[in-house]
Amino acid sequence: METMQTLAERLPQSLSGRIALLAATAHIVLYVGRAIHNLYFSPLSRVPGPFWSRISEFPHSYNFMRGDGVPYVKSIHDRYGPVVRIAPNRISYSTPTGFRTIYGKREHIKDPEMYIAPPSGAIGIMEADEVNHTRIRKYLGPAFSVKALEEQEGLIQGYVDQFIEGLRQRKNEMVDIDSWLDWTLYDMIGKLALDFDFENTINARYHPRVNNMFTNFKLMGLFYAASAYPWFYTFVQQSLKMMFARRSENYNFIQDVVKNRVRSQEKGKTDLWAYVLEHANPGDLVEKELETTGWQIVIAGAETTSTVLSGAVYLLSVNPGRTQRLVKELRKRFKSEKQISFDSVAKIPYLIAVLEETLRFYPPAAFGVSRVVTQVEGSEIDKVWLPQGTRISASQYCVFRSQDNFAKPDEFVPERWLDDHDEVFENDNHDALMPFSYGKRNCIGRSLAIVQMRLILARLLWNFDVELCDQSRDWIEQRSFLGWEKPPLYVRLTDRHHRS
Ligand code: HEM
């Protein structure tokens, strides 16, 4: 009796104090109730996952916020299997068929949490709804066709000339090859997507408007991580004002370039807009949408490809036997640099194998891009039924590094992609490698990226011997926010044609 009295005396006496106490109690009851529901009564309760991830968004948000989201999801797969619950309403797949079943269905729409509105508010290809997306893909199609690629070869080769020449001037010095690759890829995409020359490579520095483009990936990653907590979302928005300002400056610049280019109506060039203007039904073109799409193509089209190339340079440098094999094949096959072309690089199986293995080992879009189940009746994905509203993803890193899909998944073995591979790799599931995703919203720039990667790597290794500097021994240990946060990759290059 006395204890009850003491307790009552301790309770807040004022009305506001009592309301606060009531609100806090209601909050706790709600939280516990929701946790019990998530654990035992949710339709997702049968999907395995760590206790805290099944009851709270916090571990998912926290790890993604820190840039550890990819290893966090991988560790859950390693422990609980190929279909796991990474947050109360998020299911991750590392099954070989996950890409097809998740990204192949139109009813699994893009997760709005993953996309922050472009600075102008005008939508582009990335966040367009299904109807608008079909229209955009249709008018962009001719610009990414085989014919367009063939016509663009001269332009692309020209930027590789600048890249090689820039490196030749710095032979025997320590160079950050990651920046050089970034500069070259931004130069190429600038000319192809904007008809604008950023002149990064020629000036050996980032043009101010493509410097910090990684900011976009980082912002998207941070917002995705914070999306479960509205108050935190606002906090992130407030504290990242500088990043937003930079993003808007880049956007405004590209917006103006695209506007002028499209208004000029100039055909007969080999940039994206020449193909669009020539083939599209004018009624399908919406100026603001073209501007946002141009900006998104620049973001999507340079950093990804340069990441794979930096990854290949690093992985080859720490695997000297494999470098020797590739270098030998390239230098035997090509007597002069002029022979290295889109066509001829497609006939070097070991070069192709090295790039496939780099995409497997170090995929630029390592993160599982999230989709949402929209069907009222739910959706069955790889024998697991998921209700409407479930967020689903297949992380490339988790699929490609799964023992179930590839033997010795944590070893860099390009030979696994060759016909005469060791029998250990006999059961590797090649169909599980989908670095460009799958379905109607897969990568529109896939063919371009493939020729760029083959050409640049072939010409780099044909010209130079590459030695990794000690500062970059652990380069591959990186955080990831939608893309990998790459530090400089220091190498020393020896020019095999001009050794002095
Ligand atoms: C190795 C290089 C590349 C990789 C690994 C890659 C990967 C991807 C992936 C996984 C997606 C799907 C994203 C999603 O579902 O939300 C995607 C979409 C996209 N990519 Fe790439 N990409 C690469 C290069 C390029 C290039 C060179 C371009 C353009 C020049 C490009 C432009 C795009 C665009 C515009 C989309 C959105 C497509 C749509 O929504 O219809 N990418 N890419």
UniProtKB/TrEMBL annotation:
InterPro entries documented for this protein: Cyt_P450, Cyt_P450_CS, Cyt_P450_E_grp-I, Cyt_P450_sf, Cytochrome_P450_monoxygenase
One MF term in the entry's GO annotations: monooxygenase activity
A Pfam family it matches: p450
Entry's transmembrane regions: none
Alphabetized PROSITE patterns for the sequence: CYTOCHROME_P450
Requisite cofactors: heme
Keywords per UniProt: Heme, Iron, Metal-binding, Monooxygenase, Oxidoreductase
SUPFAM superfamilies per the UniProt record, alphabetical: Cytochrome P450 (SSF48264)
Keyword Heme included in the entry's annotation: yes
Binding-site residues for heme, renumbered to this chain: C443
Protein name per its UniProtKB record: Cytochrome P450
